[in-house]
UniProtKB/TrEMBL annotation:
Biased composition, class Basic residues, residue ranges: 368-391
Chain ranges of the PSP1 C-terminal domain: 115-200
Protein's name according to its UniProt entry: PSP1 C-terminal domain-containing protein
Region described as Disordered: spans on this chain: 350-391
Length: 391
């Protein structure tokens, strides 16, 4: 969904619009919404919805009333109401789809949070806005130095200037409560602007900063994910994942949100499986569950004292034995119910490289042959010293 200015340049190199998050078509931004109702006309006598969605820095979006009946479309730069002064943002959504978004985010039409749009931004508004944004990186570095000097246990992750440059919002993360009264005085004296501090969570910080996940794609929280549900280690246990914090944690340091994506499917599949802590009682002995495979639909049991010999059962067979145990009906052994697995062709053949180079030391062979040749030459020279002298 990139705009035309992001196309390739000379020699196939990426051109880039260099707008740094202020794309005019809103195709290169976070949490972009496709207006699938844009080509549909309203019925006769129905007025268009007078609220539009406006995006600010790092995907921050709010709804504003178009009280002046301006002709707005996606990509227009507008000056909106703020406290104090005004802010500058880009229109990302108009029409009836805004009503759907407001209902999804549970924002009422008559809510006091819905402010109004003053006007389309003039060139002077845009110049002031760009100058303020150019100062953000230097101020962020300087603010971190001041926080370190004051020995505050906090991390300033991002800052955002208001469109008119009258207010600067500092986003920070901290584990405990921070007394930043002295910090605000230092900031006001250093930067000569109104200061506002906002504490955000680690997941919100990762969403604002963005990045690439372990899957190789852009982070879900910075592209489409808006609600951050709690993720527990039980989600990893149900999916039989190793409880390794380095693999399960995302860039925010918390458990990955994608652990919840397939959790419902695993829970639905586990309903047919018996509990792993239930033991199977037979005449031969008591069997304990050693392993389950949700994808193949199999369980492995071993008798107590014979831990090396595993017997494969299906969930239906294991449930039958459990039901008989509850009725005190005798079960001779697991061998009556054991399943003989038929290995796939890929498993029987083993690993084979498509290129045919299955040896990891194939590049070391020429070096070994050279060493052998050199050793043979040395032995010949030692055996015939006159030849070595003549040589």
């Amino acid at each position: 969904m990139a705009c035309t200015s992001c196309s390739t340049g000379k020699d196939g190199q990426p051109k880039g619009c260099k707008n740094n998050g202020t794309c005019g078509t809103d195709g290169c931004n976070k949490l972009t919404v496709f207006d699938w109702l844009s080509n549909m006309s309203l019925p006769g006598g129905v007025e268009p919805f007078d609220i539009v969605e406006v995006r600010f820095k790092n995907g921050r979006k709010h709804f504003f009333k178009n009280t002046e009946k301006l002709s707005l479309s996606i990509g227009d730069v507008v000056a909106t109401e703020a406290s104090p002064g005004h802010d500058v943002g880009i229109v990302t959504l108009t029409g009836e789809l805004v009503r759907v978004q407001m209902k999804k985010k549970k924002v009422a039409v008559d809510s006091p949070e819905v402010l109004k749009i003053y006007r389309k931004a003039s060139q002077k508004d845009i110049d002031v806005w760009q100058e303020a944004r150019d100062r953000e990186e230097k101020i962020k570095q300087r603010s971190r130095q001041i926080a370190i000097r004051l020995k505050l246990s906090m991390k300033i992750s991002d800052i955002e200037f208001q469109g008119d440059g009258s207010k600067c919002t500092f986003y920070y993360t901290a584990e405990d409560r921070v007394d930043f009264r002295q910090l605000i005085k230092e900031f006001a004296r250093e930067f000569s602007t109104r200061i506002e501090m906002k504490q955000i969570g680690l997941r919100q910080e990762a969403a604002r900063l963005g990045g690439i996940g372990s899957c190789g794609r852009e982070l879900c929280c910075s592209t489409w994910l808006t609600d951050f549900r709690s993720v527990s280690t039980s989600a990893a246990r149900y999916q039989q994942l190793s409880l390794n914090p380095q693999k399960l944690a995302g860039q925010c340091g918390k458990l990955k949100c994608c652990l919840n994506y397939e959790l419902d499917t695993y829970l639905e599949a586990l309903k047919s499986f018996p509990k792993t802590d239930v033991k199977l009682k037979t005449k031969k002995g008591t069997a304990v569950c050693q392993k389950i495979d949700i994808f193949k639909g199999l369980l492995w049991y071993a008798y107590e004292g014979e831990w090396m010999n595993w017997h494969t059962l299906t969930p239906e067979q294991a449930n039958k034995i459990i039901a008989k145990n509850k009725k005190d009906e005798p079960v001779s052994s697991l061998e009556e119910y054991a399943v003989e697995l038929q290995l796939d062709e890929a498993e029987t053949k083993g690993f084979s490289n498509a290129v045919g180079e299955d040896s990891l030391t194939r590049f070391d062979r020429p070096k070994q042959q050279r060493k052998k040749r050199n050793n043979k030459k040395r032995k010949k020279r030692k055996g015939n010293p006159s030849r070595s002298k003549n040589a």
